[in-house]
Amino acid sequence: MKDKDLATLFENCFPSTLDTTVLRASEQDTFIITGDINAMWLRDSMFQVLPYMRFAKRDEKLMEMLHGLVRRHLESVLIDPYANGFNEFANDNHYMVDNRIPPMPPTVWEGKYELDSLCAVIKLNYEVVTADSGNVTFLQPVVRQWIKAMEIILDTMSDQQKSTEMQDNIYPYMFFRRYPHGVFEYYPRKNATGYTGMIRSAFRPSDDMTSMDFLVPSNIMASVALQQLMELCGTMADTFPEYSRRNGDIKCNAGSLHRLFLLLLLFFVSLWILLQWYGYQPYTVEYLNY
């Protein structure tokens, strides 16, 4: 870099994740804390390592660390697809004592359902495989776990597509937290929605509760992640032909969700333009929730 100050800043900041947040790194398991808390966020840990992808092919230890993080993400989804933050061990250490459905396992640090957390698991897989020129052989020891984790992600997305009426008083996710100054509470009857094909997200990427369930940026991220999952399934089926049928099923389900997203996004963008054109700005967001 020509700018020495910028070069110094980059030199100090770029390796910060490796120097300060990687608590464990190996081919089998990598645990990366979010920074100020000794817990791992699925979304945060993916973005923390994203800048290193371009160098992983030339650095064996770096690639092993990324492989270990992929495994940790898969394990986390198998433990609890509705959680955003996880402990390194099953020590029953939680941010707060929350009332939640489903109950929080000991490995979960915080049990906020955020759609982008599930998308981050897919994106991490995709970016690591892409960085290694499409090589998925590192997943051979955990291929069954990989398939199961992806099936759980798609099942969770499908469950959170259902309208309040379609859920028929059987809710896969509810959340209640009491603060000295108030409460955090999320339950479908309070946040009633109709069916649109979009996916609910109880919390935003900031970990704050959503005012309206159909968080558009997270749904757009889901659309991209589903397309990435379809590509991954093709590669997995070619590499592990004995699992080609199950990979084909995942690819088919992901494809159905992805095509629906494209139609919905086209519809909502057209609706937004129409409402803006006719001067109905105050009502735009309210209409989008239904």
From TrEMBL:
SUPFAM superfamilies, A to Z: Six-hairpin glycosidases (SSF48208)
UniProt keyword annotations, A-Z: Membrane, Transmembrane, Transmembrane helix
Top-rank lineage group of the source organism: Eukaryota
Pfam families noted in UniProt: Glyco_hydro_125
Name of this chain's protein: DUF1237 domain protein
Residue ranges of the TM segments: 260-280
Gene Ontology biological-process entries: carbohydrate metabolic process
InterPro entries to which the protein is assigned, alphabetical: 6-hairpin_glycosidase_sf, 6hp_glycosidase-like_sf, GH125
Keyword Cell wall biogenesis/degradation applies: no
Lineage, highest ranks first: Eukaryota, Discoba, Euglenozoa, Kinetoplastea, Metakinetoplastina
Keyword Transmembrane helix: yes
Organism: Trypanosoma theileri
